[in-house]
């Protein structure tokens, strides 16, 4: 996945593909989960003309008042604690941007963080959607550039 950041035009196309479906949705902030979510989410927030809020995993620095949530088991078998500063409130409508959603465990934890701040979690924009239908339904609106099934069997990063 890191290779998409190498080519400027390719990256621009990916960011447009992530941001365009949300342009008329009233998004006020984008959140992104460490680490690729920082890059993609930050770029999408600029494309949408809204603010960006980082969601850190439990090991990184994050000053100030924050909310935390432990995710369900992710695709690696981990249950990371996610943390977010209290940078959104009831007036905000928040979009999660990320690269790949396998089980949706971290996306659901991100939605909890947004809700704990009183903001509205609109949904998720991802490059690759590998979610099953039940999980997808729990995440609000989900948009993606491609599904994992469309990729077929391909080598990893």
SSE layout and pairings?
Blueprint: H1 8-19, E1 29-33, H2 36-48, E2 51-57, E3 66-70, E4 81-85, E5 93-101, H3 105-116, E6 120-129, H4 133-137, E7 141-147, H5 148-151
Parallel strand pairs: 1-2, 1-5, 5-6, 6-7
Antiparallel strand pairs: 2-4, 3-4
Report on this model:
The model has no long low-confidence stretch (mean pLDDT 94). Strand 6, helix 4 and strand 7 (141-147) form a beta-alpha-beta unit. The longest helix is centred in the N-terminal third of the chain and has 13 residues, at 36-48. This protein has a 7-stranded mixed beta sheet, with helices on both faces. It is 29% helix and 31% strand. The protein is globular and about 40 Å long. Helix 1 (8-19) packs across helix 2. The chain has helices at 8-19, 36-48, 105-116, 133-137, 148-151, and strands at 29-33, 51-57, 66-70, 81-85, 93-101, 120-129, 141-147. By secondary structure, the protein is of the alpha/beta class. The protein has 5 helices and 7 strands; from the N terminus they run αβαββββαβαβα. It starts with 7 loop residues before the first helix and ends in a 6-residue tail after the last helix.
Structural class, judged by helices and strands? alpha/beta
The coarse overall form would be globular
Radius of gyration: 15 Å
> Could you give the order of strands across the largest sheet?
3-4-2-1-5-6-7
Secondary structure: helix percent: 25-40%
Number of strands: 7
